Amino acid sequence: MRRVLCLLTIILVGAMAYAQRTQDFASRFMKIHQADSTIQCVTVSPRMMEQLAKSQDENRKATFRQAIAKLKSARIVTASNSYYDDAEILLKQNATRFIHEADYKHGDKRGTFYKRKNRKGKTVELIMLHADRKTSLLTIVNLTGDLDEDFINSLTQGMAGQTDHTD
Fold it and tell me: Does residue 164 surpass a pLDDT of 90?
């Protein structure tokens, strides 16, 4: 009986450690700042995104649906600009997990992209930090799923096309 109880405890601790290890960036950030009620996090499911696709024109619908099919979740965190450095420090502290992809800056707006790859080398998470000095608002967009390079490039180039791109 003791062996069974010990084995169950080991399995439970292992499962909890694995669950914490696979936690996405937005969840980690929210956990660290859970006491601050000014920080908001919204999770958008693929089903909600499909509803958004219905409002797109026909050409964009197909592209949008292909992108949605690859997404597992999308989390959008909003906070004061003062949290930008905290978010970037958290990403840099986990440099073995999150890889810096690109930066951009344009006028009062700046941002950066990070991604996380699985053991097979596929990108499974994309994080975008976007700060706007005029509105004093930080937006963190955290996408998880099967994110291929075409999907990532379309997002980063879309932002770079609107901004001065720096790597």
Answer: no
* 14 located within any domain: no
Contact (CB, 8 A) for 67 and 151: yes
pLDDT-based confidence at residue 53 (cuts at 50, 70, 90): low
Q: Hey, how many other C-beta atoms are within 10 angstroms of the C-beta on 108? A: 11
Each residue's pLDDT tens digit, 114-140: 999 999 999 999 999 999 999 999 999
Q: What does the alpha-carbon distance between residue 152 and residue 148 come to, in Å, rounded to a whole number?
A: 6
Tokens of 63: 């592209």
Q: One-letter amino acid identity for 48? A: M
* Helices marked H in the chain: 2-21, 25-32, 46-53, 58-70, 84-93, 149-162
| Count of domains observed in the chain | 1
